[in-house]
Amino acid sequence: MAYSPLCGLCAVPGLLPFGRKRGFPLLPSTSSGGVQIAGRHAVVVGRSKIVGAPMHDLLLWNHATVTTCHSKTAKLDEEVNKGDILVVAAGQPEMVKGEWIKPGAVVIDCGINYIPDDTKPNGRKVVGDVAYSEAKERAGFITPVPGGVGPMTVAMLMQVCMNKSSCNISRSCKPKPIGNLAREIGLLSEEVELYGETKAKILLSTLERLKHQPDGKYVVVTGITPTPLGEGKSTTTIGLVQALGAHLHQNVFACVRQPSQGPTFGIKGGAAGGGYSQVIPMEEFNLHLTGDIHAITAANNLVAAAIDARMFHELTQTDKVGCCGTMGTFERVEAPELMLKLGIEKTDPTTLTDEEINRFARLDIDPETITWQRVLDTNDRFLRKITIGQASTEKGHTRTAQFDISVASEIMAVLALTSSLEDMRDRLNKMVVASSKKGEPITTEDLGVSGALTVLMKDAIKPNLMQTLEGTPVFVHAGPFANIAHGNSSIVADRIALKLVGPEGFVVTEAGFGADIGMEKFFNIKCRYSGLRPHVVVLVATVRALKMQGGGPTVTAGLPLPKAYIEENLELVEKGFSNLRKQIENARMFGVPVVVAVNAFRTDTEAELDLISHLAKAHGAFDAVKCTHWAEGGRGALALAQAVQRAAEAPSSFQLLYDLKLPVEDKIRIIAQKIYGAEDIELLPEAQHKAEVYTKQGFGDLPICMAKTHLSLSHNPEQKGVPTGFVLPIRDIRASVGAGFLYPLVGTMSTMPGLPTRPCFYDIDLDPETEQVNGLF
Predict the structure, then answer these.
(1) How far is CA 663 from the centre of its chain?
(2) How many angstroms separate the CA atoms of 474 and 251, rounded?
(3) In the chain, count of helices (H) and strands (E)?
(4) What confidence category does residue 433 fall into, taking pLDDT thresholds of 50, 70 and 90?
């Protein structure tokens, strides 16, 4: 039977998987958060490699107990009757009888069978492997006839059910009023702007009031080189602060990034943590929050509009009558500074020569050098390359452009790295958007737009206060990309939190991707600008990540894990430890003690977990402990919290990796050799040219923000473990002058994600009666 040309997953033509809008009903219990898999008993009838075996592994991975049967299993009816979840893929028409099914069970019938039926035009009808008419009277949910649910679609359904349990957990806890939490942590009412009952913005005046208060302990959470599934840095961050706060009664704050709506509606889902270690309400966290990303989108696109409008008017109007050459423009607030920059020592516009008017009126932007793109907080692959200016009113002035996702905007990086409103205004001024035809940098200040940008961003600079499931405070602020930007939450949030917790308290923040990317940028960029000095690195590792680094089979998001990842394999774990050892060395290179958090999954064995802990401590970790915070919340991270407390008291000597005065090429080489283990770097012609241009323009002293794959220490995502002997190719270098870094491109970096075959938005809906968001995870 043909696959659907639209989805490629279901074996029934034209049937999209599990989208309420596409004819396949969601589970009836989704209004209350979906089916809980963990702790349930599942029965899989059928041992095929296509459905049976993968479903067995997937259910087991998601913490169910599983029995696998076949058509000749003794007392099959009794086995089936034990299943809270029943998956049937036996290939025999109506083999499973309705009376066998446990009342209320979830029944997923994967069968497509043809039986004679004289009432049908072709003399036959399609039935599943389950006797549908009988079974539907007993089942809590059953897939409709015809069956034929494809194996990937079944896997996706089970993943959706499993992920929705996090939403269930989130809703099971009523958050304390955010105003009450603000008072508890020492904020004054005039420092808090409430956004409803569950979130608030905190004024930067708090820093002035607390400027004499000593800072607390500063902890950064990072990770091993991850699988495509991620290894749980966010849940570890939240679990750790819950353990420190709710269980060890320490003053504590989590500081995390705000997620983009692109991945939330795309393939990744939200980023609130998970299980019993998450930020609540997860819907508020993962969607609009307080509008910071929308403000960034508006500000970014105002710059883009200003660039194209400026070029258009310069091309279609004369210097003296054009909008850029009017007397009103000369009398702008910025005019004296602009005249000084242009070297024109006159205050009377009537005395300007034609050449001086030309210099004043024209930026003469070279369209081939424009680096500023429009942005949108939605995954949309068809905006990766567009043509603008096609309307007749633009008089034929078209050019090729693109959209990036909003969190890739330099304004997001500016927000994350700024220290005050004044500093943000200065950084927004300095953002370079292009070069003139003479090779001079063109900034937002040159466009006259930086003041308006500051107005748009005046509320976004205030950190957002939320809370964890266990009532500990969380700042959610900024969310820069972790590849072309530095992948860390804001400096102002960290600074306020460090003052609020006091000298004995803890602030725990998270760095994006693995330690070779997010942690290195946290130290060399964020800490360099903030002046803050971290006390502890928490390095998250998992058995599955070590197995993948040790040469395990490919891991693909949305598909069941291969058997190697759910069966004990100490040899594979030990082989993959080389990557964790390197990441421990990377952290210690900065002079900070490292605690390894071994994030445990149900299929991990004690021998595997103990092996990782033993090896980590033997190779320089201050401590290494097993964590079960996803399932147990703060209680599951108590050992980690105690290890962090001890490590924070240990001697440390924080140091940065390189001196800013070094040439651009040398700074890149230091990162490549010391952090990635490269033998050397190779600057390709475009990168070499940009290094020279930026140095000439005065940007050579900026720190380096490497843009490379997070799936390997090298530039090749297929190279696992600790690759050696490779030369790191730098194909281009770009500048985020306002944010304050240069970012070399290692390979191709996509700044606009696309939607997958089955996006998360299929499952998201609103209950019109309760106004409750369903399907978000």
Answers:
(1) 32
(2) 12
(3) 27, 31
(4) very high
* Cβ-based neighbour number of residue 756 at 10 Å: 13
Could you tell me the CA-to-CA distances from 137 to 96, 104, 105, 141 in Å, in that order? Answer: 14, 9, 11, 10
Q: Who's near 98: CB < 8 A, 6+ residues apart?
A: 130, 131, 133, 134, 135, 136, 137, 138
Gap between the Cα atoms of 494 and 522, Å rounded: 12
Contact, 255 vs 508, CB < 8 A? yes
- What DSSP letter does each residue of 679-742 carry, written as one string? SEEEE-HHHHHHHHHHHHTT-TTS-B--B--SSSSSS-TT--S---S-EEEE-EEEEETTTTEE
457/451 Cα distance (integer angstroms)? 10
Q: Which of 271-275, 282-286, 515-519, 657-661 has the lowest mean pLDDT?
A: 271-275
Cβ neighbours, 10 Å, residue 558: 15
Question: Partners of 171 in the beta sheet?
Answer: none
Q: Which residues contact 758 (CB under 8 A, 6 or more apart)?
A: 7, 9, 16, 17, 18, 19, 153, 156, 558
pLDDT digits (tens, 9 = 90+) for 170-227: 766 788 999 999 999 999 999 999 999 999 999 999 999 999 999 999 999 999 999 8
Report the C-alpha gap between 707 and 63 in whole angstroms. Answer: 36
**What amino acid positions are annotated as catalytic residues?**
233, 235, 257, 268, 482, 513, 601, 630
For residue 65, the SS3 value is strand
Quick check: helix, strand or coil at residue 411? Answer: helix
**Closest by Cα among 311, 319, 740 to 491:** 740
How confident is the model over 361-408, as pLDDT tens digits? 789 999 999 999 999 999 999 999 999 999 999 999 999 999 999 999
pLDDT over 70 at 347, yes or no: no
Single-letter amino acid, residue 405: I
What's the token pair of residue 212? 């004499």
Distance, in Å, from the CA atom of 688 to the CA atom of 678, rounded to the nearest integer, reads 19
DSSP-assigned letter for residue 81: T
Which residues, 6+ apart, have CB-to-CB distance to 440 below 8 Å?
Answer: 697
> What is the enclosing helix (H) or strand (E) of 400?
strand 399-401
Band (pLDDT 50/70/90 cuts) for residue 340 is low
Q: Cα–Cα–Cα angle for 775, 776, 777, nearest 5°?
A: 115
Task: Extract the tokens encoding 200.
Answer: 């608030």
Task: Indicate whether 427 pLDDT > 90.
Answer: yes
Total length of the chain: 777
Closest Cα partner for 329 from 448, 227, 242?
448
Q: Which tokens belong to 772?
A: 């409750």
Identify the residue whose tokens are 């091309």: 315
The model's pTM is 0.79
Q: 75-95, pLDDT tens digit by residue?
A: 999 999 999 999 898 888 999
Judged by DSSP in three states, 317 sits in: coil
Local structure of 39: helix, strand or coil: coil
